[in-house]
Design goal:
flat; about 60 residues
């Protein structure tokens, strides 16, 4: 069940990214790197600033 929840959350994140990109590039005709930067920074921070993962929830 935890796996399906993870897949559902990742699916929702990708849907939000696709819709925001469609809005800026498709509707407004603007090219932006904000979505990629925000997503990349969020991924980097969520891994604990590139450090090792700990099971007790404390970031190194």
């Amino acid at each position: 069940m935890e796996y399906l929840l993870h897949i559902g959350i990742m699916l929702c994140i990708y849907i939000i990214l696709v819709l925001s990109t469609n809005l800026t590039v498709g509707m407004a005709n603007l090219l932006t790197m904000c979505q990629a930067t925000f997503y990349g920074n969020s991924a980097y921070i969520s891994t604990g600033y590139g450090g090792e993962r700990r099971t007790d929830g404390i970031i190194n």
